[in-house]
Amino acid sequence: MDGRENDVLDAVRRAYVAHAAGESSVPHSVFLRFPDNPKNRIIGLPSYLGDANEIAGIKWISSFPDNVSAGLERASAVIIINSLRTGHPEALIEGSLISARRTAASAALAVSAMPGAAAATGVSLIGCGVINREVLQFLRVVAPGIRSVRVFDVDRWRASEFVQSCPPGLEAEVAKTIGEAMAANPLVSIASTAAVPHVGLEHCQPGSLVLHLSLRDLTPQSVLEAVNVVDDADHVCRAATSLHLAEQRVGNRDFIAQSIGEILSSSKTYRRNPGKVTVFSPFGLGILDLAVARLVRNVTVERGWGVRHDDFLPYSKATPVSSPDLA
Q1: Which residues lie closer than 8 Å to 56 by C-beta, 6 or more apart?
Q2: Sheet with 278-281: strands ordered across
Q3: pLDDT band at 319 (very low <50, low <70, confident <90, very high)
Q4: CA distance 201 to 194
Q5: Which residue ranges form the domains of the chain, and what is each CATH number?
Q6: pLDDT at residue 321 above 70?
Q7: What Rg value do the Cα atoms of the chain yield, rounded?
Q8: At 232, is the secondary structure helix, strand, or coil?
Q9: Does 51 score more than 90 pLDDT?
Q10: By three-state DSSP, how is residue 260 classified?
Q11: What DSSP string describes 17-70?
Protein backbone atom coordinates (compact mmCIF):
# COMPACT_ATOMS: atom_id res chain seq x y z
CA MET A 1 0.00 0.00 0.00
CA ASP A 2 2.99 2.32 0.22
CA GLY A 3 2.57 5.13 -2.25
CA ARG A 4 -1.02 4.05 -3.02
CA GLU A 5 -2.81 6.53 -0.76
CA ASN A 6 -5.08 7.70 -3.57
CA ASP A 7 -6.10 4.10 -4.32
CA VAL A 8 -6.91 3.52 -0.64
CA LEU A 9 -8.86 6.79 -0.47
CA ASP A 10 -10.86 5.80 -3.54
CA ALA A 11 -11.60 2.34 -2.12
CA VAL A 12 -12.83 3.79 1.17
CA ARG A 13 -14.88 6.47 -0.60
CA ARG A 14 -16.63 3.89 -2.79
CA ALA A 15 -17.36 1.73 0.25
CA TYR A 16 -18.98 4.65 2.08
CA VAL A 17 -21.09 5.56 -0.96
CA ALA A 18 -22.19 1.93 -1.39
CA HIS A 19 -23.13 1.77 2.29
CA ALA A 20 -25.18 4.96 2.01
CA ALA A 21 -27.01 3.38 -0.95
CA GLY A 22 -27.85 0.25 1.06
CA GLU A 23 -25.40 -1.95 -0.87
CA SER A 24 -23.82 -3.52 2.19
CA SER A 25 -24.46 -5.73 5.17
CA VAL A 26 -22.66 -4.73 8.35
CA PRO A 27 -23.72 -6.68 11.48
CA HIS A 28 -22.78 -5.20 14.82
CA SER A 29 -19.19 -5.84 15.84
CA VAL A 30 -18.52 -8.51 18.47
CA PHE A 31 -16.41 -7.39 21.43
CA LEU A 32 -14.47 -10.07 23.28
CA ARG A 33 -13.35 -8.69 26.64
CA PHE A 34 -11.49 -10.23 29.56
CA PRO A 35 -12.68 -9.88 33.20
CA ASP A 36 -9.15 -9.58 34.60
CA ASN A 37 -7.88 -7.22 31.87
CA PRO A 38 -10.58 -4.65 31.02
CA LYS A 39 -8.21 -2.60 28.86
CA ASN A 40 -7.71 -5.46 26.42
CA ARG A 41 -10.19 -6.50 23.77
CA ILE A 42 -10.52 -8.46 20.54
CA ILE A 43 -13.18 -7.36 18.05
CA GLY A 44 -14.78 -9.24 15.17
CA LEU A 45 -16.17 -7.17 12.29
CA PRO A 46 -18.07 -9.32 9.75
CA SER A 47 -19.33 -7.52 6.67
CA TYR A 48 -20.45 -7.68 3.05
CA LEU A 49 -19.81 -5.00 0.46
CA GLY A 50 -22.10 -5.31 -2.55
CA ASP A 51 -20.67 -2.81 -4.98
CA ALA A 52 -19.55 -3.67 -8.52
CA ASN A 53 -16.99 -6.17 -7.15
CA GLU A 54 -18.83 -7.64 -4.18
CA ILE A 55 -16.86 -9.10 -1.32
CA ALA A 56 -17.54 -10.67 2.09
CA GLY A 57 -15.35 -11.47 5.06
CA ILE A 58 -14.33 -10.55 8.59
CA LYS A 59 -11.65 -8.60 10.41
CA TRP A 60 -10.47 -10.03 13.75
CA ILE A 61 -8.51 -7.30 15.52
CA SER A 62 -7.03 -7.13 19.01
CA SER A 63 -6.11 -4.08 21.07
CA PHE A 64 -3.72 -4.67 23.98
CA PRO A 65 -2.49 -1.21 25.10
CA ASP A 66 0.27 -2.52 27.38
CA ASN A 67 2.01 -3.95 24.31
CA VAL A 68 3.39 -0.48 23.61
CA SER A 69 5.52 -0.36 26.77
CA ALA A 70 6.84 -3.82 25.87
CA GLY A 71 7.95 -2.64 22.44
CA LEU A 72 5.10 -4.37 20.62
CA GLU A 73 2.33 -2.96 18.43
CA ARG A 74 -0.87 -2.22 20.33
CA ALA A 75 -3.08 -3.73 17.64
CA SER A 76 -2.79 -6.89 15.58
CA ALA A 77 -5.30 -8.22 13.08
CA VAL A 78 -6.14 -10.68 10.35
CA ILE A 79 -8.73 -10.38 7.59
CA ILE A 80 -10.45 -13.38 6.02
CA ILE A 81 -12.08 -13.02 2.60
CA ASN A 82 -14.75 -15.61 1.74
CA SER A 83 -15.98 -16.76 -1.64
CA LEU A 84 -19.49 -15.55 -2.38
CA ARG A 85 -20.02 -18.63 -4.56
CA THR A 86 -19.01 -21.38 -2.12
CA GLY A 87 -18.46 -19.60 1.18
CA HIS A 88 -14.94 -21.03 1.32
CA PRO A 89 -12.17 -18.79 2.69
CA GLU A 90 -10.16 -17.42 -0.23
CA ALA A 91 -7.57 -15.22 1.45
CA LEU A 92 -5.98 -14.66 4.86
CA ILE A 93 -4.40 -11.21 5.03
CA GLU A 94 -2.47 -9.35 7.74
CA GLY A 95 -4.95 -6.70 8.81
CA SER A 96 -3.36 -4.20 11.19
CA LEU A 97 -1.88 -2.03 8.42
CA ILE A 98 -5.11 -2.24 6.44
CA SER A 99 -7.06 -1.23 9.54
CA ALA A 100 -4.79 1.72 10.29
CA ARG A 101 -4.78 3.01 6.74
CA ARG A 102 -8.50 2.65 6.15
CA THR A 103 -9.03 4.61 9.41
CA ALA A 104 -6.66 7.31 8.24
CA ALA A 105 -8.30 7.37 4.82
CA SER A 106 -11.75 7.82 6.37
CA ALA A 107 -10.42 10.75 8.40
CA ALA A 108 -8.83 12.32 5.34
CA LEU A 109 -12.04 11.90 3.34
CA ALA A 110 -13.94 13.72 6.09
CA VAL A 111 -11.50 16.61 5.82
CA SER A 112 -11.87 16.85 2.04
CA ALA A 113 -15.65 16.36 2.14
CA MET A 114 -16.27 18.94 4.90
CA PRO A 115 -14.05 21.94 4.15
CA GLY A 116 -13.90 24.95 6.44
CA ALA A 117 -13.82 28.62 5.58
CA ALA A 118 -10.10 28.41 4.82
CA ALA A 119 -7.83 25.65 3.55
CA ALA A 120 -6.18 23.54 6.25
CA THR A 121 -2.60 24.64 6.90
CA GLY A 122 -2.05 22.92 10.25
CA VAL A 123 -3.27 19.94 12.26
CA SER A 124 -3.22 18.98 15.93
CA LEU A 125 -2.74 15.32 16.73
CA ILE A 126 -3.86 13.96 20.11
CA GLY A 127 -2.19 10.58 20.61
CA CYS A 128 1.13 9.78 18.97
CA GLY A 129 0.61 6.20 17.89
CA VAL A 130 0.28 4.35 14.59
CA ILE A 131 -3.17 5.75 13.74
CA ASN A 132 -2.20 9.42 13.87
CA ARG A 133 1.00 8.70 11.96
CA GLU A 134 -1.15 7.31 9.17
CA VAL A 135 -3.65 10.16 9.53
CA LEU A 136 -0.87 12.69 8.96
CA GLN A 137 0.29 10.80 5.87
CA PHE A 138 -3.21 10.75 4.34
CA LEU A 139 -3.99 14.34 5.34
CA ARG A 140 -0.98 15.52 3.36
CA VAL A 141 -2.57 13.91 0.28
CA VAL A 142 -5.98 15.61 0.59
CA ALA A 143 -4.69 18.83 2.23
CA PRO A 144 -1.23 19.46 0.76
CA GLY A 145 -1.19 22.94 2.31
CA ILE A 146 -0.59 21.52 5.80
CA ARG A 147 2.71 22.90 7.05
CA SER A 148 2.47 22.81 10.86
CA VAL A 149 1.75 19.99 13.31
CA ARG A 150 1.08 20.28 17.03
CA VAL A 151 1.05 17.01 18.96
CA PHE A 152 0.12 15.87 22.44
CA ASP A 153 0.50 12.53 24.17
CA VAL A 154 0.38 11.60 27.87
CA ASP A 155 3.79 10.04 27.22
CA ARG A 156 6.00 13.04 26.40
CA TRP A 157 8.76 10.79 25.08
CA ARG A 158 6.39 9.38 22.47
CA ALA A 159 5.30 12.89 21.55
CA SER A 160 8.92 14.01 21.15
CA GLU A 161 9.76 10.95 19.08
CA PHE A 162 6.73 11.62 16.87
CA VAL A 163 7.88 15.20 16.24
CA GLN A 164 11.41 14.09 15.40
CA SER A 165 10.14 11.55 12.88
CA CYS A 166 7.79 13.93 11.05
CA PRO A 167 8.44 14.29 7.31
CA PRO A 168 10.68 17.15 6.13
CA GLY A 169 8.89 20.40 5.40
CA LEU A 170 6.59 20.24 8.43
CA GLU A 171 6.96 22.48 11.47
CA ALA A 172 6.20 20.03 14.29
CA GLU A 173 5.99 20.91 17.98
CA VAL A 174 4.92 19.19 21.20
CA ALA A 175 2.09 20.89 23.10
CA LYS A 176 2.35 21.10 26.87
CA THR A 177 -1.34 20.27 27.41
CA ILE A 178 -4.15 18.68 25.46
CA GLY A 179 -6.01 22.00 25.58
CA GLU A 180 -3.08 23.81 24.02
CA ALA A 181 -2.95 21.27 21.21
CA MET A 182 -6.69 21.46 20.50
CA ALA A 183 -6.57 25.26 20.39
CA ALA A 184 -3.59 25.43 18.04
CA ASN A 185 -5.35 24.43 14.80
CA PRO A 186 -8.92 24.25 13.43
CA LEU A 187 -8.21 20.63 12.44
CA VAL A 188 -7.76 18.12 15.28
CA SER A 189 -7.33 14.34 15.16
CA ILE A 190 -7.86 12.34 18.36
CA ALA A 191 -6.58 8.76 18.35
CA SER A 192 -5.95 7.56 21.88
CA THR A 193 -6.56 4.44 23.97
CA ALA A 194 -8.92 6.26 26.35
CA ALA A 195 -11.72 4.10 27.73
CA VAL A 196 -13.79 6.94 29.21
CA PRO A 197 -14.39 10.60 28.21
CA HIS A 198 -11.72 12.98 29.48
CA VAL A 199 -11.86 16.19 27.44
CA GLY A 200 -14.37 18.69 26.05
CA LEU A 201 -14.32 20.97 23.03
CA GLU A 202 -14.05 24.28 24.86
CA HIS A 203 -10.44 24.75 23.71
CA CYS A 204 -11.25 24.34 20.01
CA GLN A 205 -11.54 27.26 17.65
CA PRO A 206 -15.07 27.95 16.32
CA GLY A 207 -15.57 26.15 13.04
CA SER A 208 -12.99 23.48 13.88
CA LEU A 209 -13.22 19.91 12.59
CA VAL A 210 -12.39 17.26 15.19
CA LEU A 211 -11.66 13.76 13.91
CA HIS A 212 -12.81 11.74 16.92
CA LEU A 213 -11.27 8.46 15.80
CA SER A 214 -10.95 6.75 19.19
CA LEU A 215 -14.60 7.52 20.00
CA ARG A 216 -14.37 7.68 23.81
CA ASP A 217 -12.41 10.87 24.44
CA LEU A 218 -15.05 13.62 24.25
CA THR A 219 -17.48 14.33 27.06
CA PRO A 220 -21.15 13.63 26.25
CA GLN A 221 -22.03 17.29 26.82
CA SER A 222 -19.45 18.46 24.29
CA VAL A 223 -20.84 15.97 21.77
CA LEU A 224 -24.35 17.35 22.31
CA GLU A 225 -23.09 20.89 21.67
CA ALA A 226 -21.28 20.00 18.42
CA VAL A 227 -22.32 19.27 14.85
CA ASN A 228 -21.93 15.49 14.63
CA VAL A 229 -21.15 13.46 11.51
CA VAL A 230 -20.78 9.68 11.79
CA ASP A 231 -20.26 6.69 9.50
CA ASP A 232 -23.26 4.76 10.86
CA ALA A 233 -25.41 5.90 13.80
CA ASP A 234 -26.45 2.38 14.80
CA HIS A 235 -22.83 1.31 15.11
CA VAL A 236 -21.35 4.39 16.71
CA CYS A 237 -24.03 4.60 19.43
CA ARG A 238 -22.86 1.40 21.11
CA ALA A 239 -20.18 0.08 23.46
CA ALA A 240 -20.02 3.17 25.70
CA THR A 241 -18.68 5.53 23.03
CA SER A 242 -19.03 9.23 23.71
CA LEU A 243 -21.99 9.33 21.32
CA HIS A 244 -23.59 6.34 23.03
CA LEU A 245 -23.32 8.16 26.38
CA ALA A 246 -24.77 11.30 24.79
CA GLU A 247 -27.69 9.29 23.44
CA GLN A 248 -28.32 7.80 26.88
CA ARG A 249 -28.32 11.30 28.38
CA VAL A 250 -30.96 12.78 26.04
CA GLY A 251 -32.82 9.64 24.95
CA ASN A 252 -32.46 10.22 21.19
CA ARG A 253 -29.98 10.65 18.34
CA ASP A 254 -31.17 14.01 17.13
CA PHE A 255 -27.70 15.44 17.83
CA ILE A 256 -26.32 13.43 14.86
CA ALA A 257 -26.58 15.60 11.75
CA GLN A 258 -25.47 13.35 8.87
CA SER A 259 -23.43 10.37 7.81
CA ILE A 260 -20.21 10.69 5.85
CA GLY A 261 -21.69 8.42 3.17
CA GLU A 262 -24.56 10.86 2.63
CA ILE A 263 -22.13 13.76 2.32
CA LEU A 264 -19.89 11.91 -0.13
CA SER A 265 -22.92 10.88 -2.19
CA SER A 266 -24.37 14.37 -2.42
CA SER A 267 -23.80 16.66 -5.37
CA LYS A 268 -23.85 19.66 -3.01
CA THR A 269 -20.72 21.02 -1.36
CA TYR A 270 -20.79 20.62 2.42
CA ARG A 271 -19.59 23.61 4.43
CA ARG A 272 -18.86 23.36 8.13
CA ASN A 273 -20.77 25.59 10.54
CA PRO A 274 -18.34 28.46 11.21
CA GLY A 275 -19.75 29.05 14.68
CA LYS A 276 -19.65 25.48 16.01
CA VAL A 277 -17.23 22.59 16.21
CA THR A 278 -17.91 19.73 13.80
CA VAL A 279 -17.06 16.27 15.14
CA PHE A 280 -16.52 13.29 12.86
CA SER A 281 -16.91 10.03 14.81
CA PRO A 282 -16.39 6.95 12.61
CA PHE A 283 -17.02 3.63 14.33
CA GLY A 284 -14.93 1.95 11.66
CA LEU A 285 -17.11 -0.22 9.46
CA GLY A 286 -15.85 -3.62 8.37
CA ILE A 287 -16.65 -2.80 4.74
CA LEU A 288 -13.73 -0.36 4.76
CA ASP A 289 -11.35 -3.15 5.74
CA LEU A 290 -12.80 -5.36 3.01
CA ALA A 291 -12.51 -2.60 0.42
CA VAL A 292 -8.80 -2.10 1.15
CA ALA A 293 -8.18 -5.85 1.60
CA ARG A 294 -9.63 -6.37 -1.88
CA LEU A 295 -7.13 -3.85 -3.24
CA VAL A 296 -4.28 -5.68 -1.46
CA ARG A 297 -5.44 -9.07 -2.70
CA ASN A 298 -5.76 -7.91 -6.30
CA VAL A 299 -2.28 -6.40 -6.35
CA THR A 300 -0.87 -9.51 -4.67
CA VAL A 301 -2.43 -11.83 -7.25
CA GLU A 302 -1.30 -9.64 -10.15
CA ARG A 303 2.30 -9.64 -8.93
CA GLY A 304 2.43 -13.27 -7.83
CA TRP A 305 3.11 -12.43 -4.19
CA GLY A 306 1.83 -14.25 -1.12
CA VAL A 307 1.67 -17.99 -0.49
CA ARG A 308 -0.98 -20.18 -2.12
CA HIS A 309 -2.21 -23.33 -0.35
CA ASP A 310 -4.35 -25.47 -2.63
CA ASP A 311 -4.73 -28.12 0.09
CA PHE A 312 -5.87 -25.75 2.84
CA LEU A 313 -9.42 -27.13 2.85
CA PRO A 314 -10.22 -30.86 3.23
CA TYR A 315 -10.65 -32.54 -0.13
CA SER A 316 -14.17 -33.77 -0.80
CA LYS A 317 -14.78 -36.99 -2.74
CA ALA A 318 -18.53 -36.53 -2.69
CA THR A 319 -20.32 -37.24 -5.98
CA PRO A 320 -23.02 -34.75 -6.98
CA VAL A 321 -26.48 -36.29 -6.60
CA SER A 322 -28.21 -36.51 -9.98
CA SER A 323 -31.01 -39.06 -9.41
CA PRO A 324 -34.34 -37.76 -8.05
CA ASP A 325 -34.68 -41.05 -6.14
CA LEU A 326 -31.35 -40.58 -4.37
CA ALA A 327 -32.13 -36.94 -3.70
Answers
A1: 47, 48, 49, 81, 82, 84, 290
A2: 171-174, 148-152, 122-126, 187-190, 209-212, 278-281, 227-230, 256-259
A3: low
A4: 16
A5: 5-97+286-303 (3.30.1780.10), 106-281 (3.40.50.720)
A6: no
A7: 21
A8: coil
A9: no
A10: helix
A11: HHHHTT-EE-PPPEEEEETTEEEEEEEEEEEEE-STT-EEEEEEEEE-GGGGGG
Are the CB atoms for 136 and 188 separated by under 8 Å? no
Amino acid at 41: R
**Exposure letters 250-261 (e unless 16+ CB within 10 A, then b):** eeebebbeebbb
Nearest to 122 by CA among 192, 186, 181: 186
Distance CA 66, CA 69 (A): 6
Nearest to 105 by CA among 155, 65, 148, 141: 141
Find out whether 214 and 265 touch, Cβ atoms under 8 Å: no
- Contact (Cβ atoms closer than 8 angstroms) between residue 102 and residue 288: yes
Paired with 75 in beta bridges are: 63
